[in-house]
Amino acid sequence: MNANQFLKALEQLRGWREFAFILALSERAFPNYVIFDEAIGAKQSAKMRMLLDEAWGMLQEKVGDARIAQSLARLENLAPDPEAYDMYGVYPADDFCRLLEQALLNRLNSTRPRALEASQMATATVAQFIEVSEGEDLSEDELVRVLDRHELMKVDKLFQRELILSLKKQRVPTESYIADVREDAANDGVSNLGIALDD
């Protein structure tokens, strides 16, 4: 799947497939929230995990707009304010929250396409992490070359492409299929930044 095919496939995602795609990106990014939460001692990870689990549950059950709006309000309360912290970790944590917000907004109003924006958001989190951790003394051209070749970027690209191909082939969101998507997205607790929860 080349870049143009990937973009076209993203734009064609609709309904439960689009929701599942954005949720899977959220799941992959979840450890970034947990690690930041632990660093500041906020102890909100369990509540956020519950919210993410409930969102996955929305693939199996029909929920009303009021409940989704409630979930969005809870998410807003749990999301960190990037301007309140002088540390890099707040940004990947906030990116996770924005991905989950996109998933919930998709469930609330599925007529507006959100997969492309979510995909770009997830990839930008990885690119910014590489820039912060490895790009300090690089020129813009050098940074572009590093990003093109970086293992984390390759893993992110492969994950997103394989996810789209899998979703396109699946006719209905069966419980076993969604469980497999979740497990793959969770990646044994390793986030899209290559950071593991038990590090």
Description of the structure:
Helices cover 72% and strands 0% of the residues. With 199 residues, it is mostly helical. Helix 2 (15-40) runs antiparallel to helix 3 (45-57) and helix 5 (90-108) packs antiparallel against helix 6. The longest helix is centred in the first third of the chain and has 26 residues, at 15-40.
Task: Sum this structure up briefly.
It contains 9 helices and no strands.
- Beta-strand percent range: under 5%
Number of strands: 0
Rg result: 17 Å
Task: Bin the helical content.
Answer: over 70%
Task: Using the alpha-carbon principal axes, give the shape.
Answer: globular
Q: N-to-C SSE series?
A: HHHHHHHHH
Q: Which parts are unreliable, with pLDDT below 50 for 5 consecutive residues or more?
A: none
Profile the largest sheet.
Answer: none
- Mean pLDDT equals 96
- Structural class comes to mainly alpha
Distance between the termini: 33 Å
Number of helices: 9
**What would you call the quaternary organization?**
single chain
